[in-house]
Amino acid sequence: MPIVLVVLKTVLVAPAVLVSVLLWLLVFAVLPSGMGILGFLVGVATWMLLVVGTSEQLAVRVLVWARPTTAAEQIVLGGLMTHLRALEAAVGREVLVCRSVGTRTPPVRLVGRGALVMTPWMVEAIDRGWLTLEEATALVVHAEGRYQIERPPCEVAVLGLTLLWRLLAAFGRGIGSIGQRIPVVRFAWSARGVVGAVAVVQQVSEGRVILGVLAGTIVTSTYLLPTAERVKAAQVEAGADAIVVRHGLGSVLVDLLRRYQLPLSLERVQRLQAKSLDGDWMRHGTSLELVRS
Question: Which candidate, 89, 217, 270, 290, has a CA 20 to 30 Å from the CA of 133?
């Protein structure tokens, strides 16, 4: 993995882990003494099980709020699974369907060691013909490419640990989208650095060091994380695009993105339409014609 990507991942994950640990400690601290200690021990034991991969599939269903596919959905996805097996892509993963979809939810993604999570829209799009099998395959291959580039260690354990951070971030985005319409709030947001510094000094001077660190981390992350996220997303996207091209699906993905009028830079079009050095589908000793037959 490129050192730049390692640094970006650290910058993005470290604040989330730090704030989440502090939030969990605060939650356990406000509980009655017996319940707080018991909750802490249960939480640590559960997290350790997730680190080693035990009960990961159940944890994925809870953390990303997904369910197994129904019999009807399995029939709809049968052709796609055949394509993926021919390409040896996402092999051995359990297909799950999101119960709740937000604006930032990708149509398909790989989670943990053994889950392939789709949105209900993707299943419906395949069923209704809004997506061809080649286009759906390109989306899954791109998702696997993102996973291979990022190589998230102990992903499900990190998802569980940072649950409170993600809830806090979602709440902040909701408040922010409303507050941006109010001039006073826009001004306060632009001056959040000064306000945050004052809050940190005040908390530390009054002996509440943990709250000071928490406030400082949150305010600093509002400046640092968006920039790091954009740079990381560009790095991961470029790497995943290269994997799509190697499978001979670059032009298919370009046509799909254009048809749905999704953002597509000229540089990315050229990158996706570059000729694969390994050949198209024949790289794996098969072709779409053989898969269909």
Answer: 270
